[in-house]
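Ticket #4471: structure export looks truncated?
Reporter: QA, pipeline team
Priority: medium

Steps to reproduce: submit the single chain below to the structure queue and open the exported record.
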Amino acid sequence: MCIRDRCMGIVKFGDNDSLSALVGLLTKADWVFLMTDVDALYNKNPNDTEGEPAVPLRVVSDFEELKKRANVGDAGSAWGTGGMATKVKAARLANAAGIKTAVISASQPEAIAMILEGSTEVGTQFIPCHKPVSDYKRWLMAMPIQGSIVLDAGAVRAVKKKNSLFASGMVAGGIQGKFQRWDVVMFCDEAGEAFARGMVNYSAPELGKLCGAHSSEFEQILGYNGQDEVAARDNIVLIVPGAKQEE
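Actual output as written to the record:
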């Protein structure tokens, strides 16, 4: 199953790495191990012989810093397809829920025991910066994404501070997908960076009409008086690793 949206391009729900992260969320796992044909995440493609040799990254705790240290390609590249791009995305999701994640070689299954015993000399470990989230937040993180909403800078700051999302903070033309009321959608900033997901109180067509509006105008626009919030704070979960979540 795939959808295309402004924030994430084509999202494949069936790739094994994403499914592994989702299983980890739903089973309250302490660790998720992602196995591949290389022994770790490197700062560049280890098959690239030009320039300085590739260097393995053993411990990652900051995904923003990782962007500066490593080039893992994207989902459409030889280095990214079925490889490190999807594994980093899966690790980011798992870490946001407080789950430790490791990338190891499928030919070295003993690396699992070594990592569980405390070794940082094998594979690449992604370490979350906060405690695991509540069961409800895990459920929100595991739900299929049905679309996306682009928020202005003020709304992004508010949601990151664990406030509700209001229509006045939605960017006109930034509603993607055919989602319905109570579906889970991705929230993105104006640069297209996804940072949260939430259950919405209105459908995509309705939100398209409500962009920038105040809740006092909803009845006039929609013909009925619904919820003040596009998504209530309790129904929003941040997916930025290291962000402290509400219980």
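Status: closed, not a bug. The export was complete when the record was re-opened. Leaving a note from the reviewer for reference: The longest helix spans residues 84-96.
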